[in-house]
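Standup notes
- DV: blocked on the single-chain target, sequence here:
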Amino acid sequence: MSQHFLPVFAAMYAHVRAMLAGPAAFALLPAVVLGGFWLGGEQMLIMLALGFPVCLLFAGALRTPDSASELSRSDSDEAAFEHSMDAAVLRAKQTSRRTGCVLLELDEYIETRERFGSAASDLLMTQLTERVSSVLRNRDTVRRIEDNLLAVCVAPVRQLDLGVMLQMAGRLQTAMEEPIIIDSATLYITASVGLALDMNAPEATGTGLIAGATIALAEARRHGPSSIRAYSRDMQAPALTCSPDLIDAALAALENGEIQPWFQPQLSTDTGLISGFEALARWCHPTRGVISPAEFLPILEQAGAMERLGEVMLYNALSALKVWDAAGLEVPQIGVNFSPEELRNPSLVKKIEWELDRFDLPASRLSVEILETVVALSPDDTVVRNIAGLSRIGCQVDLDDFGTGHASISSIRRFDVQRLKIDRSFVMKVDRDPEQQRMVSAILTMAEQLGLATLAEGVETAGEHNMLAQLGCGHVQGYGIGRPIPLDQTCEWMLAHLARLEALPIIGRQIG
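- DV (later): unblocked, structure below
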C-alpha cells in the first residue's frame, strides 16, 4: 500500500516545495507575520519567524541544485524519475502548462562495455549525462535509470508541441553523439531517442508519459541506431499476437528443416541464360502443405527469430550453389534477403565471411538483397557500415522493390548498391501501358547513368519479358520465367531451360 501512495506523496511534496519556494509565498509572508502578531502577540511572531525557514529546509526548497540533473545516490534510479514525472504532470495540470519525457539509449552499449570494461563504461555514461545536462534548463531533470538509458523530465512550460520536443530531442542526441575519448581512444557513438508529450500520453500520469516514451524508443530501435521517434496513439495498437503454440510450432519448424529456401530463377535478357536464383523462404508443413511467408514471417518476427531464419536461409543457399557446381550447372550467384534485424548486427560482415570461407565460395556469388525502405529510412549507422562492408568483401548489393521506398540517389550511393530490382508494380502490363513503359524507361536511364545493373521482378507474360528486353532491362524474374521451386527440382528445371535455348533458331546476318 505504501508503494501505491509513494508517487502521490512525491507529487504533493514537490507541489508544497514549489509553493513554499515560489514568489507567492514570499509575497504573503509579511501579511502572515503581521496577522500572527496581531492574533498571538510576540510569541506567535517568534514562532512564525523561526518556523518558516524550518519549513523551507524540510521541503528542500532552499537547496540549490548543482546541475540540471540533480543526481545523487539516493534518487538516481527509475523510481525517483517516476516521482519526478508524476510531480511534473501534476504541476502542468495545475498551471495549464505542458510537460514531456525523453528517453535516450546508448546504442551498442554491450559491445562498448566488453571492449573497455564496466568502469570505463560507467564513466562514459556519467560524461554523457553531463552533456545532456548542459543542454537542458535548470528546471529540467535527467537521470540514468538503466545501464545505457538516460531519462529526461521536461519541466512544465506554456508552449510545448511536437516540433519543439523534436528539436530538443535532436539537440540532446547531438550532444550525446559528439566523439568522446575513452581509454585514450576516440569513440564514435550513436543514441536512439524516444519521446512523449503529456497531451498524447497513454495516460495523463508520469507513469503514462514514461510508458509512451518507452514505446517510442522501441520504435526508434526498430528503425536502426540513431533514430528519433515520438509517441503516437497508433503505436499503442498491439502488434500481431500469436498463440504460444503457434510460435513454438514455427520455431520448431525452423530448427527441424521444415522452413527451407525455395529458388526462383533469374534470366539475362541478352542471352536467355540463367543469371542467378533468389532464395525465398517456404514452410513445408507436414499436414497443411506449403505455407506462405505472409503467414509465418510475422510469427518469427514476433518470436525474435528473424536472425535465425537468416542463418538458415544463408546456409541452405550456399549449399545449393555447391550442389549446382557439382552437377556442372552454371549459376553465377544466389540472392538472399537480409532483414533489418540482421543488418543491425555489428558482426554481420564477419559472419558472412566465415560462411563463404566455410563453403569455399567467392563473395561475388552472394547477392545481398535489401529492401528499399531500409535504405530510405536508415541513417549513417550500423546498417550502412554492414552493407558497405559486404560490398567491400565482394558481395553484390541488390536494392529490392525499387520504386516503392523513396530511396534517394545519395542513399543509393551511400549504401554502395550495384543493382536495382524494379518492383512488380512498374512491370505489370508494361507491354500494353505507355505510362508503365515511360516509368520503366526513366528507371533504366537513371540506372545506366549511375552505372547500376537492373532486374525486373514479377514478370508474368512473354509480352512483359519482351518489352523489358527492348527497353534495356538486363535481367528478369517472375512467374512467367519460373516459379519458386525446392532445391531437388532446380537441376531438372535448368536442364529443361538450357534444352529450350539450344532448340531456338539462330538469327544472324545473311552473307551474300
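- Follow-up: Residues 1-11, 60-75, 507-512 have pLDDT under 50 and may be disordered.
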